[in-house]
Amino acid sequence: MTGKYVPTTTHSAWGSGHPHLILSGPGDHREVPLDEDLVRIGSGADAHVRIDGLDPLHAEIHHDVHDEYVLVLHGQAQTNHRPVPLASLDGKPGEVLRTGARFVLGDWAFTFARDEYADHGLPYGGRQGGEGAPEPHQPPRPDYTGAHPVVPPADGAD
What is the DSSP letter of 89? Predict the structure, then answer.
């Protein structure tokens, strides 16, 4: 093999990888694309994903300046990830969503998915070193400055 080794990376263009939520609830199953930088979930009239029985603003998903999708809870929920405080969300605890992250709001289960090539988790689709090999270093995350508009927080949200 000739030439310099170029490491594989999971960094891709900002917003790529078809990020979406898969919703499963009483008598319904659907997919919701995350094609806006702020997606509100709740029963309120301004919710992007309206579900009766939830708080008017139950949760939000922010597409942040690091090209991550961050779940911010305003109501009761069950999650399978630990909260990560993020200064970009005014110190409000949030969870960076990775493919397969699941949370439950009321009677509804939500699963986050994003194509592997664009998910910013560990290199090589999250495998720790593949088949027993040491994991190669991943280059730094690209600078997405200018690719991300500023999204104001929801009115009345703490």
Answer: G
3-state secondary structure of 102: strand
Q: What is the largest CA-CA distance in the chain?
A: 61
Q: How far apart are CA 110 and CA 20, in angstroms?
A: 10
Please state, in angstroms and rounded to a whole number, the distance separating the CA atoms of residues 19 and 83.
20
pLDDT digits (tens, 9 = 90+) for 11-32: 677 778 899 999 999 999 999 9
Nearest 5°: the CA angle 49, 51, 53 is: 150
Q: Note the pLDDT tens digit of each residue in 51-60.
A: 999 999 999 9
Topology (CATH) of 20-116: Tumour Suppressor Smad4 (2.60.200)
Domain boundary assignment for the chain: 20-116
Best CA proximity match to 59, nearest among 2, 29, 101: 101
Assessment of whether the complete model's pTM goes beyond 0.85? no
